[in-house]
Amino acid sequence: MKWLEIIELRTGSTKNQQLAQAFRQLLKELTKGKNHPKVSIYNNCSLSSDYSILLFHDHSQPKITGSVLGMQICAFLKDFGLVNHNIWIERSCVQEKPIN
Q1: Does any domain span residue 85?
Q2: pLDDT, tens only, 13-58
Q3: For residue 31, what is the DSSP state?
Q4: Fewer CB within 10 Å, N- or C-terminus of the chain?
Q5: pTM of the predicted protein model
Q6: Which residues, 6+ apart, have CB-to-CB distance to 64 below 8 Å?
């Protein structure tokens, strides 16, 4: 099953240098392992202090709380600002009958 974790961070602009270093270290650590999820980091185009980290999983049913890795990333990022963590499951849009 394919699923996605989205970790959103809203931070103050005062820790940008520390945050950039933290992101570099995070990506370095994640790519060391063989079974790590694909990771992408995005920055809001209109609010430079907002970030989204996406973890793309392609295995088993997700837990409501997300992966252990996702929870660890959230705990780490709380030092930088407000964190929101959501889990999304890929669904097929093809249906035989319309939903009433």
Answers
A1: yes
A2: 667 778 888 888 887 877 777 777 888 899 999 988 899 999 999 8
A3: T
A4: C
A5: 0.81
A6: 87
For 48-86, how does the pLDDT look when each residue is reduced to its tens digit (9 = 90+)? 889 999 999 988 788 889 998 899 899 989 988 999 999
Count of structural domains within the chain: 1
CATH of the domain at 30: 3.30.70.100
Task: Give the residue among 51, 52, 85, 79 at the shortest CA–CA distance from 66.
Answer: 85
Query: 96 in a domain, yes or no?
Result: no
Q: Are 82 and 74 in contact (CB under 8 A)?
A: no
Distances (CA, A) of 51 to 15, 31, 46, 48: 13, 20, 11, 8
Q: What local confidence, expressed as pLDDT, does residue 13 receive?
A: 66
User: Does residue 94 lie in a domain region?
Assistant: no
Q: Are 70 and 7 in contact, with CB atoms under 8 Å apart?
A: yes
Domain range enclosing 27: 2-89
